[in-house]
Model the fold of this input.
Amino acid sequence: MRGRDMLRAMFFGPFLALYGILFFLLLGFLFVLLEIGVIHYAFQMVGLPPELAFLALFASLIGSYINIPIRRIAGSPVHPVAIVNSFGVRYRVPTRYAGVGTTLAVNVGGAIVPVLISLYVLARQPEAILPALFGAAIVALVVNRFARPVPGLGIATPMLIPPIVAALVAILFTDIFRVGAHVDAVAYVSGVVGTLVGADLANLNKLGNLGAPVASIGGAGTFDGVFLTGIVAALLA
Done:
């Protein structure tokens, strides 16, 4: 039975209910921005048509509540605190999924959806692949420097660091490789891939000592950085 439970998707939000409501309000606000052309412009530059851009935003928010388990990591006992604070944001620890060790999972909205968008963007704009790889490497190094293991939660990062750094490296590397027309695509891919690698993948060896019931790649602590990267990086670049 335990093996079957490991294969079932887990549903919990990366934030408290209040933050979930705020995110859905933000979605409504983003829809308005889409209608007046701001998000339309940002994602048109990235390479997504406006309808797909809104669908991607919606899928990211809904997907943030879906975590797909990968394996169980042996580690310390579950952290006793139900709510933790990180970089000024409060997160609810999914204690109902507590068991022996930590369940490593992948968040749909914070990892799978943005990676699929990145692959779509690079497939449509192959000239952006090389600068995006260099940009992702720089973002990963910077994000890893700021990433912080949080007991009971996992790995957390300041939400504004990834998009700002991604925008800067996109401007730099598109100028070096003389592909300035793809700066927005490079900013998006660099921010998404760099954040996931620098924050989550580079710190997998630390997860067993945090006492987190679930440690989700692209989930709580990282989702906000990845989500904002898709919008802010494209607008800043």
Notes: The longest helix spans residues 17-36.
